[in-house]
Design a protein that fits this description.
With 495 residues, this protein is an alpha+beta fold. 15% of the residues lie in helices and 33% in strands. The chain folds into three domains: 7-83, no CATH class; 205-355, Jelly Rolls (Sandwich); 360-485, Jelly Rolls.
Length: 495
């Protein structure tokens, strides 16, 4: 393969010719660097080294030849062999040396006289040839450092054995029998660490108001004594309640308590919470929502609530409304738990004694005093076969009225229910008042072809007798019964 010189080759040749012809300067590069020089433009340091190192020039030319033999067209066309300084013999030096030798011979003949000495043999000066290339030496790894020699310790000089002095034998004396050791006294009993004191809460004053049944109470300052219905009893902090003769119902603040006959509880009012301990038996609680935490201590674990109606005994917890937690187990309405997972439960029979303590006022509409067009209407679907209502169209400004007097038994919140029949599509005009503080209208009641119980709302009934009054101005609506009950969860539907 013939490589021709171009302008860049000539430039490199001029650089090579201008450099000195001494030996190689610096260490020879690695084979990878020589291969890189053969593939691309030569840097100045490469040019300087190749100009003075015959071995690297020979090797880089060999690399270029191998690339050309393999058909590597991408290799640069550089005839580096032509760029090397020509291997010329130093002719000028030879001629000068020969002339010097001839001059010396002639001078010797002239000085020696007639007998010329035989001419000496011509001295031929051998041309200087560059030394053969020396292979690049791989630096040997440095020898590992020698381990420090341990200091030489001279052996100890053996001491001469000392001759023991003769020991005079003494007559053996019988040792006295040692007395038995006395047992060490037992360590003093360790005093057990005292537990951290419980959180101190300030006791609060309260008032216990009996609502129904019969019970006896005891406070820190007073012995056991019977309570009277409707007569409040004040206490400070703690009060014990026993229902030995009959079940009892009472109110403390916004919470209502039911204690089954033969049962006993201890009530504590403290700052930020109400605590109850079931001593024995069974109890039921109606706790208003949004109050301070309410906690009940049972043999099976603590119960915590915020607002609910629930039953507790020594062995289980049952919830009628809301939800409670027993040992971090959630119990929802209609469920009970004995300390494990909650299960569905029918509470109707278990709460029969609770409902017996409620005050329920039931009024048959046909027993009310009627006037102004209000009349008794025969209706076999009514409670006792009769209902009341406007019999026919009324005159302008005329009102049909029904009234009755009633009296409550407990100072409690009462739910008001009315059973009516309103099948027409036009709005009704019935109005009901209970005492002086409660008024209800039937305008929002949807029509229904059947009888329906409607919850009119809740109210606090006065202690004195009050009147229930119905007023209507349109025919068509019929009234069967009115119910006022202190059981705010009571639903008369179907009863």
């Amino acid at each position: 393969m013939t490589l021709q010189m171009d302008e860049q080759d000539r430039t490199w040749k001029a650089k090579f010719d201008a450099l000195p012809r001494g030996g190689a300067t610096g260490a020879c590069p690695r084979a990878e660097a020589l291969s890189t020089w053969a593939k691309g433009p030569l840097p100045d340091e490469a040019t300087a080294h190749l100009a003075s190192c015959f071995a690297c020039r020979e090797e880089i030319v060999e690399v270029l030849r191998r690339m050309a033999d393999k058909g590597r067209t991408e290799a640069p066309r550089r005839d580096l062999y032509a760029l090397m300084p020509a291997r010329k013999l130093p002719v000028g030096w030879i001629v000068a040396a020969a002339a010097g030798v001839v001059f010396a011979i002639a001078l010797a003949i002239a000085l020696s006289g007639n007998e010329p000495s035989p001419p000496p043999r011509p001295v031929v000066v051998q041309p200087k040839t560059p030394p053969p290339p020396t292979p690049r030496e791989t630096p040997l790894p440095a020898p590992p450092p020698e381990a420090p020699k341990p200091p030489v310790v001279p052996p100890p000089t053996p001491e001469k054995p000392s001759v023991p002095a003769p020991v005079k034998e003494t007559p053996a004396v019988a040792k006295p029998t040692p007395e038995p050791e006395k047992p060490a006294p037992p360590p003093p009993p360790t005093t057990p660490e005292k537990p951290a004191p419980a959180l101190t809460r300030a006791r609060l004053k309260g008032s216990l108001l009996p609502l129904a049944g019969g019970a006896t109470t005891q406070t820190d300052t007073e012995p056991w004594q019977a309570v009277k219905i409707g007569q409040a009893r004040d206490f400070s902090g703690v009060v014990n309640i026993k229902a030995e003769v009959a079940a009892t119902k009472f109110r403390v603040g916004a919470a209502t308590f039911f204690v089954q006959r033969g049962s006993e509880i201890a009530l504590t009012l403290e700052e930020g919470r109400t605590g109850v301990k079931l001593v024995r038996g069974e109890a039921f609680f109606d706790v208003a929502p949004g109050r301070d935490p309410f906690e009940v201590e049972l043999p099976i674990g603590p119960v915590s609530v915020k607002g609910t109606r629930f039953l507790v005994s020594e062995t289980d917890v049952a919830v009628q409304r809301g939800a409670v937690q027993l040992n971090a187990i959630a119990i929802a309405a209609g469920e009970r738990s004995t300390g494990g997972p909650a299960q569905k439960a029918d509470l109707s029979k278990r709460l029969a004694w609770v409902r017996a303590l409620e005050d329920t006022i039931r009024i048959e509409a046909d027993k009310m005093a009627l006037q102004g067009g209000m009349a008794i209407l025969a209706d076999p679907t009514a409670g006792d076969g009769r209902a009341i209502g406007v019999k026919g169209p009324l005159k302008a400004g005329q009102e049909a009225v029904a009234e009755i007097a009633a009296k409550r038994k407990q100072p409690a919140t009462y739910a008001v229910w009315i059973r009516l029949h309103w099948p027409h599509g036009v709005p009704s005009a019935l109005t009901m008042t209970v005492g002086d503080a409660f008024t209800w209208s039937s305008k929002a009641v949807p029509t229904n072809p059947n009888w329906q119980w409607v919850r009119a709302g809740t109210t606090e009934l006065p202690e004195q007798p009050f009147r229930i009054r119905l007023v209507d101005s349109q025919a068509g609506l019929r009234i069967d019964q009115i119910v006022l009950t202190s059981d705010t969860d009571f639903n008369p539907e179907g009863k």
